[in-house]
């Protein structure tokens, strides 16, 4: 009877669709921020650089629903953070022993900032994703600097689109009421961020030890799960992510059979972003179906990958499962009062005058 109740509850969680108050223009603006860099790259015959710029365009999704001046200041800070994260990822690629420590530092610092300022989702996810993709980008010397510049230009374009979008939304909906100032606690900002960063680093280390062919997706999957507001939310997010990824890989294999040139890739990427941003606040598993081919295109299409679609499909599913399992373990620790007390006590000793 308990097993039946468990399965019914899981199905209810999986089948439930959330309501959304997002303006319908938001997914369109997000699709432009992510898709335009690829079209620009193709116009110059540089699909790979266009895809890097598209990665920078994801910074648009950090646009808060606040007054215009705050929106732009926060988004420009996020653009700087995204560029810095990608740069540190490239540094980790050039000096592999630094890779895991750099990713831990990025995850800890960005999570602290997002929690201190009460930033809404996606939180620190895209910063870690940019660093992880940068760390496994086969670029050296001058080409690495060119790719960093392409990502920075992608963030600049996203900020410009966000400015025009914000002008329209504020004129149509008015200035949002100011939110109460966050009053973050030490455990919420520091302890949680250190635990999250530690498990993100552990997931990348596990990927390296397992010699996974595409290890960059393991820490991203881990972070997506561990950020759940509760252990139940983390479990549900893990289930949604694994199921959505499995179906999304089938969609990717279907896309791979199409005779897509660079313009086709740009069009598909733009449409995928539009669908994802329409669905993600309503049903995460359904959005993950489209997130999977999108992220594979961002990470693989411009690198001349020699892997067959079936190999990419298998590697991505393994990466997602490994990351999700480690992320769920991290969420269990994150929501364990005893574990948090031990970690919190150790961190407080590092403070000036700490006991």
TrEMBL record:
Transmembrane segments: 28-61, 73-92, 98-118, 123-139, 145-167, 188-210, 280-299
Residue ranges constituting the Integral membrane bound transporter domain according to the UniProt record: 203-329
Location of the protein in the cell: Membrane
One matching Pfam family: FUSC_2
InterPro entries: Memb_transporter_dom (IPR049453)
Record keywords: Membrane, Transmembrane, Transmembrane helix
Keyword ATP-binding carried by entry: no
Topology relative to the membrane: Multi-pass membrane protein
Main subcellular location: membrane
Key word Transmembrane present: yes
Name of this protein: FUSC family protein
Organism, scientific name: Ramlibacter alkalitolerans
């Amino acid at each position: 009877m308990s097993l039946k109740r468990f399965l019914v509850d899981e199905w209810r969680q999986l089948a439930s669709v959330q309501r959304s108050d997002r303006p319908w223009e938001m997914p369109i603006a997000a699709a432009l921020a992510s898709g335009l860099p690829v079209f620009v790259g193709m116009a110059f015959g540089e699909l790979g650089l266009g895809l890097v710029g598209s990665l920078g365009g994801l910074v648009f999704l950090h646009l808060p629903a606040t007054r215009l001046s705050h929106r732009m200041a926060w988004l420009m800070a996020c653009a700087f953070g995204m560029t810095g994260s990608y740069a540190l990822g490239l540094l980790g690629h050039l000096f592999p022993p630094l890779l895991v420590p750099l990713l831990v530092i990025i995850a800890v610092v960005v999570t602290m900032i997002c929690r201190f300022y009460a930033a809404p989702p996606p939180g620190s996810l895209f910063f870690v994703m940019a660093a992880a993709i940068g760390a496994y980008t086969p670029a050296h010397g001058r080409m690495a600097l060119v790719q960093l510049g392409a990502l920075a230009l992608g963030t600049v374009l996203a900020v410009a689109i966000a400015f025009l979008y914000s002008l329209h939304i504020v004129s149509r909906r008015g200035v949002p009421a100011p939110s109460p100032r966050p009053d973050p606690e030490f455990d919420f900002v520091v302890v949680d961020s250190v635990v999250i960063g530690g498990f993100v680093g552990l997931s990348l280390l596990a990927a390296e030890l397992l010699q996974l062919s595409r290890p960059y997706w393991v820490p991203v999957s881990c972070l997506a799960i561990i950020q759940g507001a509760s252990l139940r939310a983390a479990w549900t997010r893990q289930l949604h992510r694994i199921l959505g990824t499995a179906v999304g890989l089938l969609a990717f294999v279907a896309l791979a059979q199409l005779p897509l040139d660079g313009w086709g890739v740009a069009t598909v990427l733009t449409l995928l972003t539009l669908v994802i941003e329409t669905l993600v606040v309503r049903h995460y598993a359904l959005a993950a179906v489209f997130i999977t081919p999108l992220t594979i295109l961002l990470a693989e299409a411009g690198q001349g990958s020699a892997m067959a679609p079936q190999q990419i499909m298998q590697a991505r599913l393994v990466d997602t499962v490994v990351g999700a399992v480690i992320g769920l373990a991290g969420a269990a620790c994150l929501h364990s009062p005893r574990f948090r007390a031990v970690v919190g006590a150790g961190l407080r000793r590092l403070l000036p005058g700490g006991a």
